[in-house]
Amino acid sequence: MKPDPAPASVDEYIAGFPDVVRKTLEDIRSTIRDAAPDLEEAIRYGIPTFQWNGKNVIHFAGYRNHIGLYPAPRASEEFRAELSAYKGGKGTVQFPLSDPIPHDLIRRIVEFRVRERMEGRRG
After folding, report:
1. pTM of the full structure
2. Which of 11, 21, 43, 72 is 20 to 30 A from 4 (CA-CA)?
């Protein structure tokens, strides 16, 4: 359900979705901005990305039935139990659009990813 062709901005990316998904994407964007106001927005890999010093910190993407967040710290003891409730691969998490979006979890993941970047870890 990604917009085609690749959007030039996060606003353009979000605008390409139906209202319900658009609202959820905007809410997630706001959660990320609130958690890490110094991050810069960009489009990388065709999806919204937040960067610190030119390095990707967190990505999110809209799909028909879920919102993807990348990378998700599934290997971290801090998040392992909470993230096990969601589908996703090794470094991804899928938040179903049919369920409430866990904004507190997203905020904590963003803060974790910022710490990783600031400490020089790849993650």
Report:
1. 0.90
2. 72
